[in-house]
Write a structure and sequence with these properties.
The complex is a heterodimer of chains A (351) and B (241). Chain A is mainly alpha-helical. Chain A has 14 helices and four strands. In chain B, strand 7, helix 7 and strand 8 form a beta-alpha-beta unit. The two termini of chain B are 32 Å apart. Classes of the chains: A mainly alpha (351), B alpha/beta (241). The complex binds adenosine-5'-triphosphate and magnesium ion. The site of adenosine-5'-triphosphate has 12 residues of chain B, from strand 2 and helix 1.
Chain lengths: 351, 241
C-alpha cells in the first residue's frame, strides 16, 4: 500500500496531461487514435500501405478543400461551385498531359515525367484561377452577405461551368494516362523488420510529397507573411481590417482566385490518381470537401489539413475492413467530431 | 484660427431602417483634443462610425482636411489619415501583439523609435509582444488598441470610450498617452463618459443628445459651470471631482 499514493499521483498527472492534450490538440489526439485503432485491426504491412495512401489521398483532398475553407472563413461566402473548379483543373491537367506534354509523359524517364507534371499542374491552377477571378466578379460579388442567394447563384454557376466543360471536352469520361515512370508501384521486400515486404503505388508518394509541400508553403504564407496576417485578421474581423485602411474587396478577390487555383490543382492531381475523369467528379468530391471543412473548423487552414488527413485515412481503413461502410464512415466521423467539438477541431474565433 | 481638421455639417445617419443621427453639426479643431459627451444612447458611437464611413449618410456632409469624404469607403478614409479605436477595441485576438501592430502600420515596417515610445507608454505591449492578443487583460487590450492607432503618425484619432471598465491606475496611463499625443499636436476626437478624465484632457467639448449636438464650446467653460453640466450631462456637483 505504501506505493499506492505516488502511483495514484502519477496516474492523476497523466490523466491531466491527457485531458489537456485532448482539449488543446484534439486533431492530434484523433489522428493518433485513428492510426492506433487501425493498427490493431490489420497486419502491419497493410496498415503501413493504407496509412501512406490515406495520407496521400488526404493531402489531395486538402488542396481541394483549403480554398473553400478560406473563402468561407474570410468572406463567409458559400461557394457551391467549388467542385466545378476541381473538375476544371482535372480537365486542363489531363489535356496538357495527353496533348502538349504528351512526349514527356510517355518517356520512361522519371525526370521528364516530373517535368511534364509540373507545367500541367501550373496550367490547371492558372485556368482555374482565371475562371475563379471572373466567377468572383460576375457571380459572387453581387451576393455578398446573403447565404441563400449565394447557394442559389453558385449552384447555378456550377451547372453552367460543368456544361461548359462538357461542351469543350465532351460529356464522356476521359482516361488520364499517368506518366510512364509513375505507373505501377514500388515493391519492397523485407524492407522493415516489423512490417516486412510491401507494395506502394508510386503516384501516391508523389501526391503525398506535393500535398505536404503545398501545405508547408501555405502555412508559411499564413503564419509568416504580412498577407497571411491580413488574411487571418480578415477571418476574425472584417470591419476592423477596413478600419485600418485595407481594401477588403481586393483581399477577397485574391483569396478567391487562390482558392479556385488550389481546387484546380487538387482536381488535376485527383485526375492522375484516379486515371479517369468526368465533368461531374468535382461535384462528387464536394461531400468530402464539405465534411473536411466542417470537421476542421470553418476558415482554419490547419483544421482543414487535419480534417482532410482524417477523411483520407478513414476512407481507406474502413474501405479495407468493410468496404460497404466507407461512405458512412466519413459522415460518421464528422458527426462524432461535432458532438465532441461543435466548432470543429481547430475553430476560428470570430467577432 | 486655422480651419478645423474635421467638420460635420447637418449629418444624418441610418442603421438599417432606424434613423439615428438627426443633423449633427460638429467641428474638431486642428491639433486639439475634443471630447464628445452625452448620455447613453445619445449617438456618440454612431457619430464616430459615421465619420469612418461605417453607416449610411442620407443627408449632410463630412469634410476632412478640406476634402468631402462623406461617400468615401472606410478603407479610403483610413488611408487619408484617420485612425479609429472602436468601443469594442477591435483587437485581433488570434493575432499576436506584434502582428496586431504590424498590420496597423500600413506604410511598411514599423519605426523602431516610435515603437520604443509606445513601449515606454505601455510596457505590457513589450512584455507580451509575441503572445496572442486575445490573452491580454481588458486594460492591456485597450493599450494595444490605442497603440495601434498611434503606431504611425495620423492626422486625426477617433477614440470611443477608452476608459470603460478600467482600473484607475490604467486610466492614468491612458491619460499620459493622450497627453503625449496632444504634445505632438495630433488632433483627437474622444468619446468619454468619465468626466474627470475628459476634463483633464479636453480642450474643446461637444455634448450630444438624441442624435444631435446640443452644446459645443471650450472644456474650461463647461468645467466651471456646474449648472450647465447638470443640465447637459446630469452630473451632480462634485460627484466626479
Ligand atoms: N445596430 C443598431 N441597430 C439599431 N439601433 C442601433 C444600432 N446601433 C445603435 N443603435 C441605436 O442608436 C442610438 C445611438 O447609439 P450609440 O451607440 O451611438 O450611442 P452612444 O452615445 O455611443 O451610447 P453609449 O454611451 O451607451 O455607448 C441608440 O438609441 C441605439 O439604440
Ligand atoms: Mg457608445
Amino acid at each position: 500500500m505504501s506505493q499506492a499514493n505516488p502511483s495514484v499521483g502519477q496516474w492523476a498527472l497523466w490523466r491531466d496531461r491527457l485531458l489537456k492534450l485532448q482539449s488543446d490538440k484534439p486533431h492530434l489526439v484523433l489522428l493518433g487514435l485513428m492510426l492506433f485503432l487501425a493498427f490493431l485491426a490489420m497486419d502491419p504491412a497493410t496498415w503501413f500501405v493504407l496509412t501512406i495512401s490515406g495520407m496521400a489521398m488526404g493531402t489531395m483532398l486538402f488542396l481541394m478543400a483549403s480554398g473553400m475553407t478560406l473563402t468561407f472563413g474570410l468572406m463567409s461566402v458559400l461557394n457551391l461551385a467549388h467542385g466545378a473548379f476541381i473538375s476544371l483543373g482535372a480537365f486542363v491537367g489531363a489535356v496538357m498531359l495527353t496533348g502538349a506534354l504528351g512526349v514527356y509523359t510517355v518517356s520512361p524517364s522519371l525526370g521528364w515525367n516530373l517535368l511534364a507534371i509540373l507545367p500541367a499542374l501550373f496550367a490547371a491552377m492558372a485556368v482555374a484561377g482565371v475562371v475563379g477571378w471572373l466567377f468572383e466578379v460576375i457571380v459572387i460579388k453581387p451576393v455578398y452577405g446573403d447565404h441563400l442567394k449565394q447557394i442559389l447563384v453558385t449552384v447555378g454557376g456550377s451547372i453552367v461551368l460543368i456544361q461548359l466543360i462538357e461542351v469543350t471536352w465532351g460529356a464522356n469520361e476521359i482516361p488520364v494516362p499517368r506518366p510512364g515512370a509513375l505507373r505501377g508501384a514500388f515493391v519492397i521486400e523485407d524492407w522493415v523488420p516489423l512490417i516486412g515486404g510491401l507494395v506502394m503505388e508510386k503516384f501516391r508518394m508523389v501526391a503525398l510529397i506535393l500535398g505536404l509541400t503545398v501545405y508547408g508553403l501555405m502555412l508559411w504564407v499564413i503564419d509568416r507573411t504580412r498577407l497571411g496576417i491580413l488574411v487571418r485578421a480578415g477571418v476574425e474581423n472584417r470591419e476592423m481590417v477596413e478600419i485600418q485602411g485595407y481594401r477588403i474587396g481586393l483581399l477577397f478577390l485574391g483569396v478567391f482566385i487562390a482558392g479556385s487555383a488550389l481546387a484546380g490543382l487538387g482536381g488535376a492531381m485527383w485526375g492522375m490518381y484516379r486515371e479517369i475523369i468526368t465533368a461531374h467528379m468535382g461535384e462528387e468530391l464536394m461531400i468530402s470537401v464539405i465534411v473536411i471543412i466542417i470537421l476542421g473548423g470553418l476558415g482554419s487552414i490547419r483544421g482543414c489539413f487535419y480534417g482532410a488527413l482524417l477523411v483520407g485515412l478513414i476512407n481507406l481503413y474502413i474501405g479495407y475492413i468493410e468496404p460497404r461502410l466507407a461512405a458512412v464512415a466519413t459522415v460518421g466521423l464528422m458527426v462524432g467530431v461535432l458532438m465532441w467539438r461543435p466548432q470543429g477541431l481547430i475553430p476560428v474565433i470570430k467577432v | 484660427m486655422s480651419e478645423p481638421i474635421l467638420t460635420l455639417t447637418g449629418v444624418h445617419a441610418d442603421i438599417d431602417q432606424y434613423h439615428i443621427l438627426h443633423g449633427i453639426e460638429l467641428q474638431v479643431p486642428r491639433g486639439e483634443l475634443t471630447v464628445l459627451l452625452g448620455r447613453n444612447g445619445a449617438g456618440k458611437s454612431t457619430t464616430l462610425r459615421t465619420i469612418m464611413g461605417l453607416t449610411k449618410v442620407p443627408r449632410g456632409s463630412v469634410t476632412f482636411n478640406g476634402k468631402d469624404i462623406t461617400s468615401w469607403s472606410t478603407s479610403r478614409i483610413a488611408r487619408a489619415g484617420i485612425a479609429f479605436v472602436p468601443e469594442n477595441m477591435g483587437i485581433f485576438g488570434q493575432l499576436t501583439v506584434r502582428e496586431n501592430l504590424v498590420l496597423a502600420g500600413t506604410h511598411g515596417p514599423l519605426d523602431q523609435a516610435r515603437l520604443d515610445w509606445l513601449f515606454d507608454l505601455f510596457p505590457p505591449l513589450k512584455k507580451f509582444w509575441d503572445r496572442p492578443a486575445g490573452n491580454l487583460s481588458g486594460g492591456q487590450k485597450q493599450m494595444l488598441a490605442i497603440a495601434r492607432a498611434m503606431v504611425e503618425p495620423r492626422d486625426l484619432l477617433l477614440v470611443d470610450e477608452p476608459t470603460k471598465g478600467l482600473a484607475p491606475a490604467i486610466i492614468d496611463d491612458l491619460a499620459t498617452a493622450f497627453e503625449e499625443l496632444k504634445a505632438r499636436e495630433v488632433s483627437i476626437l474622444l468619446v468619454e463618459q468619465n468626466f474627470s478624465f475628459s476634463r483633464r484632457l479636453g480642450q474643446t467639448v461637444a455634448v450630444m443628445n438624441d442624435g444631435q449636438v446640443v452644446h459645443s464650446g471650450t472644456m474650461a467653460e463647461l468645467a466651471q459651470d456646474s449648472a450647465l453640466q447638470q443640465d447637459l450631462l446630469g452630473l451632480g456637483l462634485g460627484a466626479h471631482q
